Amino acid sequence: MVADAQADAMTITRQPLTGLHVPLITPFAVDGSVDVTALADLAGQVLDDGASGIVALGTTGEVASLTTEERRLVVDVCATACDERGAPLMVGVGTNATAVTRDEVRTVDPRASAVLVVVPYYVRASEDGVVEHFREVAAASPVPVLVYHVPYRTARPLSVDTLRQLAELPNVAGFKHAVGAVDDVTTAFMSRKPVDTAVLAGDDLHVGPMLALGADGAILAGGQVATRAYAGLIEAWRDGPIAPARRQAAALTPLAAALFAEPNPAVIKAVLTAQRRIRCADVRLPLLPAGAAAVDAALDTLSSISAGGDRTPTAR
């Protein structure tokens, strides 16, 4: 069975990294445990509503607060949902230690189609050190590596030259690009990236401009509360016409701002609870539940987005 799973995973890895990939929250039950039923339902819903794939153990999933056993459980639930629908699964891995990250990718669930590996954080490695980190990690990984470039969390911005060096490493398939802006480095890299390197927009607020610059798709936390709308936005930028794509991006911008008004994923969990898609909005410390004003603002914004036909809030 392991061999079959590995064969299936390798088949999925050949699919291009495009479309909407949703980094799922980790729903908790009232006793604090992982709510497996709610997670399975949510994973199935986003895929059925148009997401190309899902991401397990991302920042939105509160991965830092999960035990090793809980992480395995989350990946298993997400992998099952993806297997049932023939969709790719990305698994978030990585620490600020190369040896530990290398071990994590070696033991990733064989059903994963790619690993999302964060740039080493906190230690403030040199850019050359980051390249060597990913050289070792990519060489050890049984599946393609997506570099998670998020300097406002890692304190390690990367230059255009470094991004290009990373793109050229064997087994590096692309990037989740989440720099908090559409800056000079972003525009220069998007104009010079190798044609076989995928770039997935990672900031909900900037997904429209990133798609306009040629991003292949996106990894968006808001994709689990407005899946059809975000999937439609990416499809519109890819297939045209452009004018409706611009209008849809503008319509989704207030939602992105509202969902991130407090530390992620507090507002998103509250919205999903109001939609009755999860049973509990709890987050784990040091995160705190979202305030009522932020939740109300997000629900009001979401209710105005009707073109995508997304699941609407049913309770406050």
UniProtKB/TrEMBL annotation:
Gene3D superfamilies with a match to the protein in the record: Aldolase class I (3.20.20.70)
Record's keyword terms, sorted: Amino-acid biosynthesis, Cytoplasm, Diaminopimelate biosynthesis, Lyase, Lysine biosynthesis, Schiff base
EC number: 4.3.3.7
Reaction catalyzed: L-aspartate 4-semialdehyde + pyruvate = (2S,4S)-4-hydroxy-2,3,4,5-tetrahydrodipicolinate + H2O + H(+)
A Pfam family: DHDPS
Residues involved in pyruvate binding: T60, I219
Active site per database record: Y148, K176
Keyword Cytoplasm: yes
One GO MF term: 4-hydroxy-tetrahydrodipicolinate synthase activity
Keyword Metal-binding: no
BP GO terms, sorted: diaminopimelate biosynthetic process; lysine biosynthetic process via diaminopimelate
Site (Part of a proton relay during catalysis): T59, Y122
Superkingdom field: Bacteria
Matching InterPro entries: Aldolase_TIM, DapA, DapA-like, Schiff_base-form_aldolases_AS
Location of this chain's protein in the cell: Cytoplasm
Group of enzyme by EC: lyase
One GO cellular component term: cytoplasm
Recorded metabolic or biological pathway in which this protein acts: Amino-acid biosynthesis; L-lysine biosynthesis via DAP pathway; (S)-tetrahydrodipicolinate from L-aspartate: step 3/4
Family: Belongs to the DapA family.
HAMAP family, A to Z: DapA
Subunit details: Homotetramer; dimer of dimers.
PANTHER family, A to Z: 4-HYDROXY-2-OXOGLUTARATE ALDOLASE, MITOCHONDRIAL, DIHYDRODIPICOLINATE SYNTHASE
Job description of the protein: Catalyzes the condensation of (S)-aspartate-beta-semialdehyde [(S)-ASA] and pyruvate to 4-hydroxy-tetrahydrodipicolinate (HTPA).
Protein name: 4-hydroxy-tetrahydrodipicolinate synthase
Source organism (scientific name): Gordonia soli NBRC 108243
